[in-house]
Amino acid sequence: MNSEDIIGFLNGALPRKAREIDERNIADEELIKELASRGAFNALSLGPRAVYSIVKEASKWSPAVAHIIMSSSAAAFRLKQEGHVYSICITEPGGGTDIKANLKTVAEERGNEALITGEKVFASNAAYADRFLVLANGPSGPTLYLVERDPSVEVEVQDLYTFRGAGVSKVVFKGSRGVRVGTPGKGVREALETVNYERLGYGMIGLGIKEGALEEAAPKALRKVIFGKELGEFQGIRWTLADLEIKSRALDALISEAIAKAEGGLPDPYDAAMAKLLGAEVAQRATWVAVQIMGGSGFNKGSRLEWLARDARMLDIGAGAREALLDFVGDMAVKKYRGASTS
Predict the structure, then answer these.
(1) What is the pTM of this model?
(2) pLDDT of 221-251, one tens digit each?
(3) pLDDT of residue 96
(4) Which of 44, 62, 84 corresponds to the end of one domain?
(5) How many domains are contained in the chain?
(6) Terminus-to-terminus CA distance in the chain, angstroms?
(7) Is 221 found in the same domain as 138?
(8) Which of these, 144, 243, 258, 161, lies nearest to 201 by C-alpha position?
(9) Residue 27 domain-assigned?
(10) Half-sphere exposure of 72 (CA within 13 A, CB side)
(11) Is 342 within a domain?
(12) DSSP class per residue in 221-289
């Protein structure tokens, strides 16, 4: 088992399967089984660097498949358990960003077990998961629980226009048996610590979307002759591509540094927030530029550019809204510079 083998498999399979995954809003069972057999869900054995490399490569064709691997790995890193496909179940129908205020799911603890009752939405990977990491109100307040898939867990895939095939679902727990895996009353903090792994992954998805979009558009468009010059010779195009390359290199360095800092521990939330914010910016700008240089053909329905552009939009909302993360990073910056010496 190694990341090169998994990446090689994805590079062979996803160009053939990505459109169908997007159109059907589901990844076929054989693909998930093949990923599992090659160790794509063995996050602890692979390590964060390898996992995020796989996520980036998968995102060039299918951010949805990248999200399946990334989100399951985030839970595996948190739980220190691998070999399963995990779903992270935090958000409830009442709202997402204000997690604690909207938490209605209840865990009735009975010794070492708990009965989980409630409803989650935008649950990552739920269509494929055999384990669910669930935030619920326990006797001491918000707490994390692990639930195995059984008939008491009802999953309904959500029909979103972005990340189609990622298995994002509504999940209803009807007295589902679980075990406590978090510190009583500390579930919101521990859920966000888990989400920080996802935020770094979203940064890598952004890099993958950028690469995929430009790989699709640039060879077809930059040699196109307009007013006697190839499109790639125009200064405006070159400066635009330069800006994307600079930001992509900075983002890659940021994520590499964050992984190194988190060795054996949890990701720095500051790093994770900035990686997600910059990943969204890079992905959205790259898909906009790719469509622009393609001209009218960039609007073809069912094209690689179409689903990459749709998926890029998710990066500003999933795993924490852009505005909430900007506020967090800004607050950290104010604290940093408020106390700076003026001498």
Answers:
(1) 0.94
(2) 888 888 888 888 889 899 999 999 999 999 9
(3) 67
(4) 84
(5) 3
(6) 55
(7) no
(8) 258
(9) yes
(10) 32
(11) no
(12) HTT-EETTEEGGGSHHHHHHHHHHHHHHHHHHHHHHHHHHHTTTSPPPHHHHHHHHHHHHHHHHHHHHH
Buried b (16+ CB within 10 A) or exposed e, 190-218: bbbbbbbbbbbbbbbbbbbbbbbbbebbb
**From start to end of the chain, where are the E strands?**
86-89, 106-110, 113-123, 131-138, 141-148, 153-157, 169-180, 225-226, 229-230
Q: Are strands 169-180 and 141-148 parallel, antiparallel or unpaired?
A: antiparallel
Residue 306's Cβ-count burial label (10 Å; 0-12, 13-18, 19+) is middle
Q: Is the pLDDT of residue 161 over 70?
A: yes
Domain extent for 303: 189-336
Distance between CA atoms of residues 314 and 209, nearest Å: 12
Question: Are residues 218 and 287 in contact, defined by beta-carbon separation less than 8 angstroms?
Answer: no
Q: Do 26 and 127 contact (CB within 8 A), yes or no?
A: yes
Extract the tokens encoding 293.
Answer: 């240089």
Q: Could you tell me which residues come within 8 angstroms of residue 27 by beta carbon, excluding any fewer than 6 positions away?
A: 17, 21, 64, 65, 68, 128, 165, 167
Q: Do 85 and 32 contact (CB within 8 A), yes or no?
A: yes
Give me the amino acid identity at 221. Answer: A
| Stated length of the chain | 343
- Is 161 in the same domain as 281? no
pLDDT tens for 178-210 read 999 999 999 999 999 999 999 999 999 999 999
